[in-house]
Amino acid sequence: MTSARETTTTGSDNETDAALARAASGTVPVGRSPRQLAWIRFRRDRTGVVCAVIVACFILIALAAPLITKAYGKNPYTLYGQDDGLLNSYGLPLKPNGGIDGAHWFGVEPGLGRDVLALLVYGIRTSLGIALCVTVLSVVAGVTVGLFQGYLGGRTDYVVGRFSDLMMSFPQQLFFIAFTPVIVAMFVRPGNAEPTWIRFAALVIVQFVLGWMALGRLVRAQVLSLRTREYVEAARLSGASTARIVRRELLPNIWSTVLVQSTLLLPVNVTAEAGLSYLGVGMQTPTPDWGLMFQDAAQYYQSDITYMFFPGVAMVVFVVAFNLLGDSVRDALDPKTVR
Amino acid sequence: MLRFLVRRLLGAVVILALISALTYLLFFTLPSDPALLSCGKNCTPANVALIHHNLGLDKPVPVQYGEYMAGIFTGRRLPLGNCPAPCFGLSFANDAPVWTILSSRYPTTLSLAVGGAAVFLTVGVGLGLVSAWTRGSLFDRLASSVSLMGQSVQIYFIGPLAIYLLVDRLRWLDPGADPDWSHDPAGAVGGLVLPCLVMSVIFWSNYSRQTRSLMIEQLAEEHVRTARAKGMGRGYVFFRYALRGAMGPIVTLFGIDLGSVFGGAIITETTFGLHGLGQLAVAAVTQTDLPLEMGVMLFSSCAIVLFNVVIDASYAFIDPRVRLL
């Protein structure tokens, strides 16, 4: 759009030139910003667009969970199975296929008897919420650390680099398992009732603590090569402050890396959070959580395999969509890379 | 080589010392009093004081940490009982030395990790090689979509499905079992097949993708083209020239993945009901058994850091151009 306006407002010589060029090649030359080019490339990528829609749906589900369950007429806490007698004496749904019927579209949960659809919608909300917080924090921290590490170099680079090495040598899964309760205990005395948000915060903190290094390194490496470029040196010579150089000269160049990496980081964080809840150290019943559904389902898979399918398939679709989206974003932003 | 090993081992010692210090600090000095954590719901001040004394928490933190670390090499006499040489303290839950528990549990995790890694390296690199060889073919395209699926499933989803299908329904494989290598090696292998397979699935894809692109990159190198131009066979050049060049980055990738392999083993253990370090760590957390937790943490960090040194040293064998300094 901007380019079109430019051609009309420039002088008549230019206009005739443009007209000549148009006549010669048969196309209208249009100047576009890198962002517009990336957007156009992305829109042409059908897989990418489909995946973006799926991802948007998941995010919408997470955001609109209360509305969805309200429209659906169930909530994720009521024990429908027990209250309405939908479970047999072993806690298994009476109806076939996990108790799927008109009232409970995805069936009822074995054991407690909550509604699976409501549980899943709220579970996605919890897991996605935690993963999103972790991703945002990790990206902000990773970019900040990487930028300053790369730009300042020297001793700062060395010290921060060794620190990030140290953090990377922690066995991640074990670190999460071990420190989630420690962080919870910082807020609540053991034995006291524990509000859900504290678990939430603890999970965010432990995953964040070990989550920023990979991006930090990538950004550092990029900045190392960027900071000796002429335009950065020119900015420095003309007296620009460090903050300005970082913000105006360096950040715009690492944007695409950051975007791609965050798209790939989010599903990793979702599955990590679900994994922790699955192991029993993440969110606790009765809070609806994606990972807890797997933990539950793992106890009943021999008699009620249907229950496992809903969270399972949802998660596979989610992760596939996110990974493909990440690839498409990369292709759109950096068309030179060949997969 | 020797100089490299000494340097890397010293580095490993420093990293381990820092990990242990940080872990100790987080476990024992945060506002969360381990005595409160460990004495659970019926906590009296007398209990707390007793636990403090038993744990040596009445001393300053650096002294505690020093004693703990010295105990690993020399053993300790603790108020609750004797703790022989590799002393990681005594478990809160049953007063047994942590090392005894650890040494009974780690074979399961180690077998799983090694077995799983063997499977995913073979399958992943193998698939990648075939894809690169038949680049652009139906197999190549199929393999890349399978890879995408593999990358997107979770152990806690396919594990139960695999048990349901392959064990309960088709009866093709044994359900997972803790390996007992000294008494029943055949049974140990049988019990590990399914867990290792399930665990490896999530790693395949990355290796096949990387191997494929590395091989394609290598095949375009000039020395490879020269070798072909000299009249060497396609297969010979593929394996002896290109694969050799692609090996280094694959090994690097494996080194980076070691931690995730361990993490995968933990989730696999839980899924198959095996009793390894992961299950121990979860149990220790639920019982707030801090010395045990600390032990598992240190032991696993140690294993991962040492494996990494081994992997770095292996570059020298893979790529003769690499000089280890």
TrEMBL record, chain A:
Residues 124-326 form the ABC transmembrane type-1 domain. This is ABC transporter permease. Its main location: membrane. It is a multi-pass membrane protein. It is found in: Cell membrane. Belongs to the binding-protein-dependent transport system permease family. InterPro entries: BP-dependent_transpt_permease, MetI-like, MetI-like_sf, OppC_N. Keywords: Cell membrane, Membrane, Transmembrane, Transmembrane helix, Transport. The keyword NADP does not apply. PROSITE patterns: ABC_TM1. The lineage of its organism: Bacteria, Bacillati, Actinomycetota, Actinomycetes, Kitasatosporales.
Automatic annotation (TrEMBL), chain B:
It comes from the Bacteria. Its main location: membrane. It is a multi-pass membrane protein. Keywords: Cell membrane, Membrane, Transmembrane, Transmembrane helix, Transport. The chain crosses the membrane at residues 9-28, 112-134, 146-167, 187-207, 241-267, 296-318. Belongs to the binding-protein-dependent transport system permease family. This is ABC transporter permease. It comes from Streptantibioticus parmotrematis.
